[in-house]
């Protein structure tokens, strides 16, 4: 089946141009002016932007954490992703403590296969370094897992500096890459104890026990471990100016560092933790916490200069009912917020339409760079001959108001409730199949993506 997108503006990471796009089955066959329509269904794209399907390289679907499970599993999470223009997610496979990477991978395939409506891959969490895990890394690459994640905080998943060093040396051999959750665990624990001893239990304690400088400390330490291991690393969900300064210093030493941030750190500020209504603030509990307006500005600037390469969501959704588990203990509020359904329109609204980012910059951050960083380019991340026909048709003239009640995520709230978007996603195509038409989802079957090595 051939499909011709006629008269739109095609956006790549390098620029924009008026062009038609011809699909042949699941792939892009041609991009150019006045392409022939014979035998093709025609999609009128006059006035529309054609963007490569977004990649969300940071989701947590069907994750057991804090004695509960995320509201979104692969079925609802992937449908929410598609609705937000995301055609590929890379979720964090997470072995149970003490289990092998193979067990973790099997578990994540059980959760995702046959349920995921968009294309998907997995990063693998490394929460320990021992001979078994060391011997499994090669197999992970054979399974198309070419990126990993390590946590410098969270008792259930955290890994020490020595283990990080050994893991990085192994990944170096493979030309592999790992993302890191950077926060200083020990001092956070001490600050939590102090707050509790003082009988202070408001949601406002959350940002105060996890301040920006304790994130920056862990980023700085990671930079030095990576320097010793002589390997590039990724800092995920980067939130603040001091963390960026540590990354800048490492780059000045000649180190290669990739940086991800998320919409919540670009569009929201820490006043969300000071709301009168406990639940209204608890909705925003995530780690690292949402920071100050000055940090937002620093992140937007860093996106413009190329210091930050990707914007993912860290979609980790819990309902308000689940958040209530922390009513009497702020550390028991399940950490994480939803975002996979709103990222594209938020970044267009707060970034492109607000003059903070160019359209090619948005495509680099949401599509091209994650495709390159996580070994999926040029199959994903670009509208070009031979690429998968993952396309977002964006109408820059439309708008709508974000309401959780209209969303397909199983989370019952949105951190962006009431925001009026600039522009709107008109259609989403997944490998040549219309997946979303003006908000209406159609049945699609996602494919597991065996990823290659980092090429950014
Ligand atoms: O609070 C958050 N971000 N939860 C998700 C897990 C993580 O740290 O990425
Ligand atoms: Zn994290
Ligand atoms: Zn995360």
Please specify the SSE layout and strand pairing.
Layout: E1 2-11, E2 16-24, E3 27-32, E4 40-44, E5 49-52, E6 54-59, E7 64-65, E8 68-69, H1 74-83, E9 86-93, H2 101-112, E10 119-125, H3 131-142, E11 147-151, H4 161-174, E12 177-181, H5 185-197, H6 205-209, H7 212-229, E13 233-235, H8 241-252, E14 257-261, H9 263-267, H10 278-282, H11 293-305, E15 310-311, H12 320-323, H13 343-352, H14 359-373, E16 391-395, E17 424-430, E18 433-437, E19 440-441
Parallel strand pairs: 1-4, 1-5, 6-9, 9-10, 10-11, 11-12, 12-13, 13-14, 14-15
Antiparallel strand pairs: 1-2, 2-3, 5-16, 7-8, 16-17, 17-18, 18-19
Helix pairs in contact: 3-4, 4-7, 7-8
What is the structure about, briefly put?
The protein has 456 residues and is α/β, with parallel strands linked by helices.
CATH-defined fold name of the largest domain: TIM Barrel
Mean model confidence by pLDDT: 97
Number of E strands: 19
Q: Name the overall outline.
A: globular
The top-level CATH class of the largest domain is Alpha Beta
Strand portion: 15-25%
Instruction: Report Rg.
Output: 21 Å
Explain what this protein looks like in three dimensions.
The longest helix has 18 residues, at 212-229. This protein folds into two domains: 2-51 and 382-441, Urease, subunit C, domain 1 (Roll); 53-373, TIM Barrel (Alpha-Beta Barrel). The chain contains 14 helices and 19 strands. Helix content is 32%, strand content 21%. The chain has 456 residues and is α/β, with parallel strands linked by helices. It has helices spanning 74-83, 101-112, 131-142, 161-174, 185-197, 205-209, 212-229, 241-252, 263-267, 278-282, 293-305, 320-323, 343-352, 359-373; strands at residues 2-11, 16-24, 27-32, 40-44, 49-52, 54-59, 64-65, 68-69, 86-93, 119-125, 147-151, 177-181, 233-235, 257-261, 310-311, 391-395, 424-430, 433-437, 440-441. Strands 1, 2, 3, 4, 5, 16, 17, 18 and 19 form a nine-stranded mixed β-sheet that branches. An eight-stranded parallel β-sheet has the order 6-9-10-11-12-13-14-15. One zinc ion binds at residues 58, 60, 314, 316.
């Amino acid at each position: 089946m051939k499909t011709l997108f006629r008269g739109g503006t095609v956006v790549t990471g390098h620029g924009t141009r008026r062009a038609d796009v011809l699909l042949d089955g699941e792939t892009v066959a041609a991009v150019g002016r006045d392409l022939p329509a014979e035998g093709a269904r025609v999609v009128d794209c006059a006035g529309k932007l054609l963007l490569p399907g977004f990649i969300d390289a940071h989701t947590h679907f069907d994750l057991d954490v804090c004695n509960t499970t995320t509201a979104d599993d692969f079925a609802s999470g992937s449908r929410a992703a598609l609705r937000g223009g995301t055609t590929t997610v890379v979720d964090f496979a997470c072995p149970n403590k003490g289990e092998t990477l193979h067990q973790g991978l099997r578990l994540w395939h059980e959760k995702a296969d046959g349920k995921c409506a968009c294309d998907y891959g997995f990063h693998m969490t490394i929460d320990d370094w021992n001979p078994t895990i060391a011997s499994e890394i090669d197999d992970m690459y054979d399974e198309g897992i070419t990126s990993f994640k390590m946590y410098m905080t969270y008792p259930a998943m955290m890994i020490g500096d020595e283990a990080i060093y050994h893991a990085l040396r192994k990944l170096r051999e493979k030309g592999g890459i790992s993302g890191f959750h950077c926060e200083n665990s020990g001092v956070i624990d001490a600050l939590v104890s102090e707050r509790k001893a003082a009988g202070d239990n408001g949601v406002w304690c959350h940002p105060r026990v996890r301040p920006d400088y304790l994130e920056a400390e862990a980023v700085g330490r990671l930079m030095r471990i990576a320097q010793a291991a002589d390997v590039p690393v990724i800092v995920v969900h980067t939130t603040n100016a001091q963390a960026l300064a540590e990354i800048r210093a490492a780059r000045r030493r000649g180190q290669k560092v990739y940086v991800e941030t998320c919409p919540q750190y670009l569009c929201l500020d820490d006043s969300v933790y000071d709301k009168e209504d406990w639940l209204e603030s608890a909705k925003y509990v995530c780690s690292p916490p949402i920071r100050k307006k000055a940090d937002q500005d620093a992140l937007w600037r860093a996106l413009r200069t190329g210091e930050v390469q990707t914007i993912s969501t860290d979609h980790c959704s819990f309902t308000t009912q689940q958040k209530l588990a922390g009513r009497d203990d702020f550390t028991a509020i399940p950490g994480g917020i939803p975002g996979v359904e709103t990222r594209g329109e938020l970044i267009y609204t707060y970034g492109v339409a607000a003059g903070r980012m160019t359209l090619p910059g948005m495509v680099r951050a949401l599509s091209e760079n994650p495709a390159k960083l996580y070994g999926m380019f040029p199959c994903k991340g670009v509208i070009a001959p031979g690429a998968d026909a993952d396309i977002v048709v964006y109408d820059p003239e439309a708008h709508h108001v974000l309401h959780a009640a209209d969303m397909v995520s199983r989370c019952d709230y949105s951190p962006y409730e009431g925001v009026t978007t600039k522009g709107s996603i008109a259609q989403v195509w997944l490998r040549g199949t219309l997946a979303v038409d003006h908000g209406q989802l159609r049945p699609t079957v996602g494919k597991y993506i065996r990823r290659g090595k980092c090429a950014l």
